[in-house]
Amino acid sequence: MASVPALSASIQQRVSAALAAAVPSAADADPLLRRSDRADFQANGVLGLAKRNKANPRELAAEVVAHLPEDDVLAGVEVSGPGFLNLTVSDAAILRTLAARAEDDRLGVPTAADPRRMIIEYSQPNVAKEMHVGHLRSTVIGDALVRIMEFRGETVIRRNHVGDWGTQFGMLVQYLIEHPHELDHESGETGGAAMSRLDRLYKASRAVFDSDAEFKERARRRVVDLQAGDPETTELWQKIVDESKIYFNAVYDRLDVLLTDDDLVGESAYNDDLPVLAQELEDSGVAVRSNGALCVFFDDVVGPDGQPVPLIVRKADGGFGYAATDLAAIRNRVGVLKADTLLYLVDSRQALHFKMVFETARRAGWLPEGAAHHLPFGTVLGKDGKPFKTRSGETVRLMDLLAEAVDRARAVVEEKSSGLGAEEVGERSVQVGIGAVKYADLSTSRARDYVFDLDRMVSLNGDTSVYLQYAYARIRSILRRAEGRTPKAHPQLELAPAERALGLHLDELAATLDGVAETYEPHKLASYLYGLASAYTTFYDQCPVLKAPTPEMVENRLFLCDLTARTLNRGMGLLGIRTPEQL
Ligand code: ARG
C-alpha cells in the first residue's frame, strides 16, 4: 500500500511555494488551481494576491514563474491574460505517476489520516409492509457510501433501523391470535411469497380494525402487552418480523447490497431505554410537560398558525413514538458504540424531524455538535413527473420493478453478445439490470428528484451504467487479445492529446473520493467514472492500441487501457455495481 500524490496536488504545492517565495507575506495564499482547456491546469490565484498587494498582476505572475522549481514535472508555464498561469505537465510526469498507481492495489489512493468511527443508517423499511422506491434510494445510496467510506479506511457500522414497532403491531398480532394459521407456510419461503402473505395479513387485519370497534379495543390492549414484553405477544410479533426479514433479505440479495441480519437493529431494540430517556430529558429540563405530553420546544419551529410545534417524546397516553426511538438510537450510537459521525439516509420530507431530534440530543448532552447528518434525498418520479406509482395509483412493488429492470437488460445483453450460454445471459442480465437501476440513482445528485425511466437506464449511450460496463468489457477484450504483449508504462514516450487527457483523468480518483467523503455525495464518483469512460472512448477512437506504430507504444497504450479498466472496476465496485468481463 503506497499512496501516490496526484499531479494536481504536486503542482498546487509547487505554485504555492513559488507564490510564497515571491510574496513572503502571502505564505498561505491559495493558488486556485483548476483543470483547464488551454493547458493542463490554470492557476488564478495571482490576480487576487496582486490586487491585495496593489501590485501589477502580470509582473507578479512573472515573478511567481521565476520561483517555480526547474524539474521535469512541469513542461511549460505561461502567463496569460491579466495574470493567469497556464501550466502544462510533462508527459513523463504523467506516466511516472500512473505507473506508481498501477503498482498499488488501491491505485495509490491514500487512507484517511484520521479515520472516523461512523454509523451509516440506511434502507430502514417497515416490517409487514412492501418496500418502495424511497427505500430503494436509501438502500442504494447508503450502501455506496458504506463501500466508499470503508475504502477510505473509516470504521463503518451499518444500521438498518427497520420500523418494527408501534401501534399497528397490536393490530397485526391480535389478528394473528384470532386467525392462528394466517402466516403458516411450507419451508423454503421466497421473498415474494413472504411479502404477499404479510400483505394479506396487513390488509385483512386493517379491515377488521376499521370496521369492528371491539377488535380495535383488543388491538389497543395488545400494544400494551407487546410493549410490556408479554411472551405470547412477543412470539407472534417475532414471527411477523422474521417473515419480513425473508422478504427484505431477498430484496437485498437481488440489489447486491452489503446489509445482513447483523446490521438490522429495529426501532423495537430501544424499547427498554425509552422510559429512562424520558426521565432524563424531563429531569434536565430539556423536555417539559405540555397538555399531558412530554415535549421539547424550539424557537424556530412553528406551525402555519404561528404556534410552536414540539418534538413529542412521550404522548399524553404514555406511549412513545418515532422520535423517542430516534433519541434512544443516538444515545446508543454515541454513548455505547462510540461513533463520532452519524449519517442518516432518509428522504427529505423528514428533514424537520431530524433537525428537532438532533437538537434535542445535543441539548441533552448525548450528541456532540455537528456529529449527526441527515442526508436527505429527493423523490423518484414517474414519467409524468409525479411521484412514481403504478397505473392504478399504488406504490410500485420494489421486487416487480427490479424484475422488470433485469428483463430489459436481458434484451440488451442478448443483442450485444452472441455465443453466451443461457446461464451467462441470465447472470449478465442481473448485473446490467440492477447496475442500471443503482447507477441511475447514484448518478443523480442526492437531493434532486429523478424520473424512473428504464428505457434510459439500460441505454448503451449516455451517462448509464451500461455504457460504463461496456467500456470496461471492451478494454478487457483488448487486453485479452494483446497476446504476450504486456501493459507497461514508457515514460520517455511522447503522449497524444487523448492519452494525456485520459492520463490526467486517471490521476484524479483520490481527489474525487475526497470530494465524495466531504459532502457524502456518491454522484461525484459516478460523474468521475462517466468522464473516465468518455476520455477512454476518445482515446480509443484516436489512438490505435494493438496496431500502434512501435512496440513501446503498444505496451504504453495497453498500460493506459489496463489502468483505466482497473480504475473503472474499482470505482464501479465502490458504487456497488458489477463490471462483467464480457458484455
Ligand atoms: N422506517 C421509516 C420509513 O420507512 C424510515 C426510518 C428512518 N430512520 C430513522 N432513524 N428515523 O419512513
Automatic annotation (TrEMBL):
<keyword id="KW-0067">ATP-binding</keyword>
<dbReference type="InterPro" id="IPR014729">
    <property type="entry name" value="Rossmann-like_a/b/a_fold"/>
</dbReference>
<protein>
    <recommendedName>
        <fullName>Arginine--tRNA ligase</fullName>
        <ecNumber>6.1.1.19</ecNumber>
    </recommendedName>
</protein>
<dbReference type="InterPro" id="IPR001278">
    <property type="entry name" value="Arg-tRNA-ligase"/>
</dbReference>
<comment type="subunit">
    <text>Monomer.</text>
</comment>
<dbReference type="Pfam" id="PF00750">
    <property type="entry name" value="tRNA-synt_1d"/>
</dbReference>
<feature type="short sequence motif" description="'HIGH' region">
    <location>
        <begin position="125"/>
        <end position="135"/>
    </location>
</feature>
<dbReference type="InterPro" id="IPR009080">
    <property type="entry name" value="tRNAsynth_Ia_anticodon-bd"/>
</dbReference>
<comment type="similarity">
    <text>Belongs to the class-I aminoacyl-tRNA synthetase family.</text>
</comment>
<dbReference type="InterPro" id="IPR036695">
    <property type="entry name" value="Arg-tRNA-synth_N_sf"/>
</dbReference>
<keyword id="KW-0436">Ligase</keyword>
<dbReference type="Pfam" id="PF05746">
    <property type="entry name" value="DALR_1"/>
</dbReference>
<feature type="domain" description="Arginyl tRNA synthetase N-terminal">
    <location>
        <begin position="9"/>
        <end position="89"/>
    </location>
</feature>
<dbReference type="InterPro" id="IPR035684">
    <property type="entry name" value="ArgRS_core"/>
</dbReference>
<feature type="domain" description="DALR anticodon binding">
    <location>
        <begin position="468"/>
        <end position="583"/>
    </location>
</feature>
<dbReference type="Pfam" id="PF03485">
    <property type="entry name" value="Arg_tRNA_synt_N"/>
</dbReference>
<dbReference type="GO" id="GO:0004814">
    <property type="term" value="F:arginine-tRNA ligase activity"/>
</dbReference>
<keyword id="KW-0963">Cytoplasm</keyword>
<keyword id="KW-0030">Aminoacyl-tRNA synthetase</keyword>
<dbReference type="InterPro" id="IPR008909">
    <property type="entry name" value="DALR_anticod-bd"/>
</dbReference>
<keyword id="KW-0547">Nucleotide-binding</keyword>
<dbReference type="InterPro" id="IPR005148">
    <property type="entry name" value="Arg-tRNA-synth_N"/>
</dbReference>
<keyword id="KW-0648">Protein biosynthesis</keyword>
<dbReference type="InterPro" id="IPR001412">
    <property type="entry name" value="aa-tRNA-synth_I_CS"/>
</dbReference>
